[in-house]
Design brief:
With about 400 residues, this protein is an alpha/beta fold. Helix content is about 20%, strand content about 25%. α2 crosses α3. The longest helix has 16 residues.
Length: about 400
């Protein structure tokens, strides 16, 4: 492995452009120094935390689930009940204006909820949506029927009931359910994708916790999630993902939006987010923090990264390094730096800038830190785990 050096610290707000990818072999090296002065990070406490747009959430009441107490009468409905509907009802919704054939990827959660049924056992729930919330579906299950057969039958029922084709891919974020989801998906010819990039689903679960689960007559306050999310110790980075140099950078939000647009119009490696759907409102001039990684083999590096479900980048000041999270339970030591008061302050400032943007940040891969071109661009959102 080559010994690496870094460019001197300096302020940059690069204007990134797309670059058409081609295939090539890999020969990459590992970064090892922090290079961005903290005093130039923009923080904007006025930016709200991500939250799903209420206009995109729809529900159709169906048969209620069993509960340990009687449902309230219509005359006893509170303002919340009038606004959000019956918390024991299920959801089955398809946007009538959507092209049904265009929904090729679903986001799915199959897990227990902090709700007891008449037997005193936790209710399980299947929650399914697509990334745009054009498809929304929920169904409750007793805890004694949780298996891949139940899930497979439910997936087929969603397809039949809503008149949509079976998806090509299903994203899910709980490692504990990987066996059941994988088995059900493969029997239906659906590719299971373990990923924390199912952000619409994660934010919808947070929304349902407040507007549905907490109002359910069987709700158990203080109940901890049965299947908590993994946060494993970070591993060494595979050699094919090494870069040669890196730097903390920042881009005006308007430039970030242009980069995201280029992902849809050109052959660029990366991934975007639907910021309107996620309820993220940011002024065009606000600087968004990011990480620029440079390599003489930038195109193959971006190609390898594109095969991962990149979730977030975290500056870990205790380990004096950067942590790259991919998939659902994989964390890599992406880079390290010499720990000093100055580098710690810089890393803390980058994390503070990310927090002030509601967790929004980006990863850019370039041939050089001086380059105006970008061969890979991932828009990332660092979210806390859902409350269920």
């Amino acid at each position: 492995m080559a010994t690496l050096t870094f460019n001197p610290a300096r302020i940059r707000t690069p204007r990134l452009q797309s670059h058409k990818p081609i295939s090539s072999s890999l020969s990459l090296s590992k970064p090892n120094k922090i290079v961005y002065p903290s005093s130039h990070f923009s923080t904007n406490p006025q930016i709200s935390q991500p939250r799903l747009s209420r206009s995109r959430l729809n529900s159709v009441s169906e048969s209620p689930t069993s509960s340990p107490t009687e449902k309230p009468s219509a005359s006893a409905l509170t303002d919340d009940e009038e606004e959000y509907g019956d918390p024991t009802a299920e959801v089955s919704y398809l946007d009538p204006e959507i092209d049904r054939e265009s929904i090729s990827e679903w986001e799915l959660d199959f897990c227990s909820r902090p709700i007891l049924d008449i037997r005193g056992k936790k209710i399980w729930e299947l929650v399914v949506c697509d990334s745009t919330l054009s498809l929304q579906y929920t169904k409750y299950f007793p805890n004694n029927v949780i298996n891949s057969i139940t899930l497979k039958d439910a997936i087929v029922s969603i397809s039949d009931d809503l008149g949509v084709p079976l998806p090509q891919k299903i994203r899910f974020f709980r490692s504990q359910m990987q066996t059941i989801i994988t088995r059900a998906g493969r029997e239906l010819g659906i590719k299971p994708v373990p990923s924390k990039r199912c952000l619409s689903l994660l934010l919808w679960l947070e929304e349902r916790y407040e507007t549905v689960y907490m109002r359910h007559p069987g709700f158990q306050k203080g109940s901890k999630p049965l299947l908590s999310l993994d946060n494993p110790f970070p591993m060494d980075l595979p050699e094919n993902l090494f870069g040669e140099k890196w730097a903390f950078v920042q881009l005006p939000f308007s430039a970030v939006q242009e980069e995201v647009s280029s992902l849809r119009t050109r052959f660029t490696f990366g991934a975007s987010l639907d910021l309107d759907l996620l309820g993220i409102e940011i002024d065009d001039k606000t600087l968004i923090p990011g990480l620029a990684v440079a390599s003489s083999r930038a195109i193959p590096l971006a190609a390898w990264m594109n095969g991962l479900e990149v979730c977030s980048v975290e500056a870990d000041t205790s380990r004096a390094g950067l942590i790259l999270s991919v998939g659902i339970s994989t964390r890599y030591i992406y880079a390290t730096y010499k720990k000093t008061p100055a580098t710690t302050q810089e890393a803390e400032a980058w994390e503070a800038a990310k927090k002030s943007c509601g967790g929004l940040h980006f990863l850019a891969i370039q041939e050089s830190l001086d380059s105006d071109d970008c061969v890979g661009f991932w828009l990332l959102l660092d979210l806390p785990p859902p409350p269920v």
